[in-house]
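Continuing the batch. This is chain 6 of the set; chains 1 through 5 are on the previous pages. Same settings as before, nothing changed between runs. Recording input and output for traceability.
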Amino acid sequence: MTHATDTTNDHAYDVVVLGAGPVGENVADRVRAGGLSAAIVESELVGGECSYWACMPSKALLRPVIARADARRVPGLRQAVQGPLDTAAVLAHRDDFTSHWKDDGQVGWIESIGADLYRGHGRLDGPRRVTVTAEDGTVTVLTARHAVAVCTGTRAALPELPGLPEVKPWTSREATSADHAPGRLIVVGGGVVATEMATAWQALGSQVTLLVRGGGVLDRMEPFAGELVVDALREAGAEVRTGVSVTAVERTDGTVSATLTDGTVLQADEILFATGRAPRTDDIGLDTVGLAPGSWLTVDDSLRVEGSDWLYAVGDANHRALLTHQGKYQARIAGAAIAARAAGVPLLETDRWGAHAATADHAAVPQVVFTDPEAASAGLTLAEAEAAGHRVRAVDYDLANVAGAGLYADGYTGRARMIVDLDREVLLGVTFIGPGVGELIHSATVAIAGEVPIERLWHAVPAYPTVSEVWLRLLETYRG
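Output for chain 6:
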């Protein structure tokens, strides 16, 4: 049930969860499944960043963009989709996917699992103790018999630039919730948010200028992935400038002016800074338990904060993998570990791939960037594998030479790479870029997490004619 604040009584639970985003919801669900009582604290909308300002609205904006791009590559269909997107309809569809920024459904889900929701700002107040301050200032005290889980996520990190607060720049929140397409949009950054939002708003009618400090975009993937994304953005009409930074911004009569390191001044209607994330741990009482406010929380593989026997940090707050699906995975691991420790299990399964170890954070993290073309990866890049000391071989294949790709899209452009550990002959990483490759990445994740030997993968026959046939082509290339 949802509780009003209570100034007279403390409330005791087995587990108290700070943050009701997807990660916090899953921690609460898993500890409830383990027979423990749970309270969950949220100061904003239940469902968190993913539901209202990240995963769901961004993909709702991008899906029509990608569908139109794919349709334009199919002979006999491209003439039917030559007109502009109906931006108003796309935004309305986005609003439906965010439940119009109302959280009734998510609150109902929390109630359905038997957890108690407290609305307000939660702060640690010493070991196993949390205070919840409501909007009206009243305070409720929650105590945890076994664990407190910090699932507060991250916020956009803005650079320190003269005049930036007065400009009121977009962050990922404004970019995913805007009610119209600005005529001119400057996007600062080269990561996932920057490239996805540049893709979306360029297609929805904005003239986009993407400013990248480094030499390319998506620098945590194989270099060729970012190169193809940049090519596609430019082909779509966006301007992409690399090797530049913004040194100052100002807004005059509604127009934003951005001064760059090369002295150029750009003007736009809005400017989006997608320049990283910071942990939302600055005002949650970390100082009351001997930790630095505003810090990333270092955890072991059961997601327990190092040096503590009761405090857990799950999802973005521990900085292991800033991805919703990975945070939910961590939540399943943490919930199982908390329940096991509460039951007095003497030895948790924390060995490699054990039930209480978030091993995938190190070895098999999947990610899809929903640009056009899509970029998808799992595990390590070539550079990461070599830096880790593995003896490896990168095997590349041009996706245009796969029969299924040619059927999927006329003039299909894409590339695949797998990283083979030569000592064990298993995969350490896989990267795909091309239309529709997001649906290929789970097979790669299974192969990596399962440590499937190359000789066994040879017997995993891909259906013909599909884009998945690239697996056979990669293995043939490896065998020579």
